[in-house]
């Protein structure tokens, strides 16, 4: 069968099971948009290519399947660099296709030419420039394989316009042959045995669960391991939902804005079982002072993570699901032969911290609206399997702290790159992937202004997401740092509560919109929003600008220096 | 460079365009310093071999190899410590050597088993191959003549055979 390069590309994407792609056409990619008309693939036309990338990420977060985006060359390719970098740091499987000027003029500074391969090399797991239409099926096959196996990540295919128009003989490769790419999934039996022994000997163990649990679809295995051993679990920002918050062994989020118990349990532990986590600086604080007495078991599919920050006592390279399942067996075998330490005194200490240092805020009846109160109200008036996406800033930390994540794949978030503007498009992508679920974006006013135009996409495609803007009229997280570390010298962080008018703006984009100023309107408005299921809804919550995120570990400090709550007098009532 | 402070990575890569950029980019991005680099085809035309001399101070060698391994076109990496490798380098050097200095220069060349490649009225070009330290020594001794131009290839290396079985570390597989 003879196909054009463009037809071969679309057919290859179909062969890989692509159901939906997010994109926006232009000159160099034009030929590929033609056969798309006949394709089974649903295309969602975005308003900005950054939106396409984040939608693909949201889709991948919620479904576990690779997100696919397609854009043209030059400025469109550069517009999608941010989502690529975001997906790279958070290990999200993406396949991005960019148009490119014809091969014959590459290197001549042609119209809308840019070195997409060069620009995206540092932010992709791999990228390919297609130089022969005959290679298209192989490259697409390799691209999906690389994106979704091992440590997942974004890949990019740069597709010159003349390749799209040339003819090729269609054939689908059965196998992927990449001699330099052989992820090791299995782990070493001896190390697994050693890990089991350490887990039995430890008196103050903590499981430090990271995003790798979700990538490996290992949440059930983790639950089994925790329940078998009784070892408590902290879930990092990337792992919220990987272990149910309602579970008595769940200690919640560690790190810069983690809760006191999660942070302190790690600090005092004598064994840290790191599963798919990477000792990120937002978790460790000052590395020298991090969990000083702990031995480390570190399980990760990426060998480069083992020893990158902290040298493990037992390093295990492998897929988290596989390894945890075998750890469960190894622990059972170990405990059939040996005694194990009693960790009940440790658990009592931990319970004491939980009792003494809960997360706290206070909503006064007639006082300003507290952001945490809004988040908890949404949480309590939506199904427990609601998917929640957030932007980056204070609202993100409050959402991670105050939401109750009881199911995996319900938290869609930009962790590693911290990309403002992530929430709206990511929520759209998540809703496209999981139309059966309620999807909320909990966004900041600053973030909202970066990608809000994708609500036009949502309206026109009838993707009924719900958006809560926690409108504190500030770049709140930056304001918080200026408050704490720059003597309240506020420099360029004020945004205004009503410029833009978020309600009018949302309505202009085809959404239903509400404004909430006072605590008593919060729940009724959420209930109104819940009734709308044919278009996006936006609620502009006017929240207290002086509220800061606590606990907080100041940058450069050890986690021992965690500040639990605001000093007396901070914030308003 | 002092003997022993460097690591030699012998990296087998796919022979495709852009692979050198990927490798060099990785070093730059992660702040690792490359002392020298030699790239050449291998007996199998699908692959090339890069011999990379890494500064052991700037780069934790284990991280370097593990990060390199993540590059898809990298097939395998052998890490050779200086003591376990035979290393050679080639140098071309043009020195000032008019009539009166020519015989002295020729004598020196003979001691170092250098070859005289070209002779002009006022200068001559020598070629010498050997261990990098030998090239350093010869450069020092040629200094007084006046060095017009000098080029070195960067070292290439293979494991010492007698120790190959115990000391040669093949770092693949285990990419992610
Ligand atoms: C694209 C981008 N630019 C700048 C920043 C730095 N930054 C981090 S949080 C933040 C403020 C976010 O403001 P807003 O969305 O209103 O959230 P809030 O903190 O007020 O809840 C800024 C500017 C960033 N993370 N991303
Ligand atoms: Mg704000």
Commentary on this structure:
- The complex is a heterodimer of chains A (573) and B (176).
- Chain A is of the alpha/beta class.
- Chain A has 3 domains: 2-169, Thiamin diphosphate (ThDP)-binding fold, Pyr/PP domains (Rossmann fold); 189-356, 3-Layer(aba) Sandwich (Rossmann fold); 371-549, Thiamin diphosphate (ThDP)-binding fold, Pyr/PP domains (Rossmann fold).
- Chain A is 37% helix and 16% strand.
- Chain A is built from 23 helices and 20 strands.
- In chain A, the strands form 4 sheets. In chain A, strands 3-2-4-5-7-6 form a 6-stranded parallel β-sheet, with helices on both faces. In chain A, strands 11-10-9-12-13-14 form a 6-stranded parallel β-sheet, sandwiched between helices. In chain A, strands 16-15-17-18-20-19 form a 6-stranded parallel β-sheet, sandwiched between helices.
- The radius of gyration of chain A is 24 Å and the shape is globular.
- The model of chain A has no long low-confidence stretch (mean pLDDT 97).
- Chain B has 176 residues and is α+β, with helices and mostly antiparallel strands.
- Chain B has 2 domains: 6-85, Alpha-Beta Plaits (2-Layer Sandwich); 86-156, ACT-like. Chain A, domain 2 (Alpha-Beta Plaits).
- Chain B is built from 5 helices and 10 strands; from the N terminus they run βαββαββαββαββαβ.
- In chain B, strands 2-3-1-4-10 form a 5-stranded antiparallel β-sheet, with helices on one face.
- The longest helix of chain B is centred in the middle third of the chain and has 13 residues, at 99-111.
- Chain B is elongated, with a radius of gyration of 19 Å.
- The chains are: A alpha/beta (573), B alpha+beta (176).
- Thiamine diphosphate is lined by residues 391-395, 418-420, 444-447, 470, 472, 474-478 of chain A.
